[in-house]
Design brief:
mainly beta, 187 residues, 2 domains, 12 strands, eight-stranded antiparallel beta barrel, 5% helix, three-stranded antiparallel beta sheet
């Protein structure tokens, strides 16, 4: 009798109520009103990366929208936070009015009172540290150094990343309500 026991069936996933944290490669995502013309950003997830900074971990989903790569970052430690980068803009360090030495000073101070003045906005320093990205299908990660700034009185973040042998690269991420992302299960 013991060996004839049937396995419990896998729980059936409610495909009508998938959350952004359920998304995987092959799924279609729709982000309400996130495009520059306030239309929805719809894309098929063709890349899933896992990120790590110390004990913090998060996921980035990516795909193509209007001939450019778009990204959603999903942080789900204590509660779910979602950030989107939909404009494909990459910001060089000199556009921020900063040098490599300035970035090193920001990192050494780790002072949340520090800020960057960019595009007539103040971006408050939040953190900097070594980080790693693990791409789908790869056993080893790729390390980089990252800085995070938050727009003063705003919901946007400015991230700057520096991979070894590559230039500094910045991007602006918009805060997205998790309920504004609809997930359609791919085949």
């Amino acid at each position: 009798m013991f060996f004839d026991r049937k396995k419990d069936p896998e729980p059936v996933q409610d495909l009508a109520n998938l959350k952004v944290t359920d998304a995987r490669i092959g799924d279609m995502l729709s982000v309400v009103g996130a495009a520059e013309d306030f239309s929805d950003v719809d894309f098929k997830v063709d890349r899933l990366d896992e990120f790590e900074a110390g004990s913090r971990r998060w996921t980035a989903l990516s795909g193509m929208f209007r001939d450019r790569r778009v990204f959603l970052e999903i942080h789900s430690e204590d509660f779910v936070e979602v950030y989107g980068n939909f404009d494909a803009r990459r910001i060089a360090l000199d556009e921020l009015g900063l040098s490599e030495a300035d970035m090193g000073e920001l990192d050494s101070r780790q002072n949340p009172a520090d800020f960057v003045d960019f595009e007539k906005k103040f971006w408050l320093y939040r953190m900097s540290r070594e980080m790693a990205v693990f791409s789908e299908g790869r056993d080893t990660g790729r390390g980089y150094y990252g800085w995070v700034f938050q727009e003063q009185d705003g919901k946007r973040h400015l991230t700057v990343r520096k991979f070894e042998g590559e230039p500094f690269e910045g991007a602006i991420w918009n805060s997205i309500q998790p309920a504004d992302v609809t997930v359609f299960r791919g085949s």
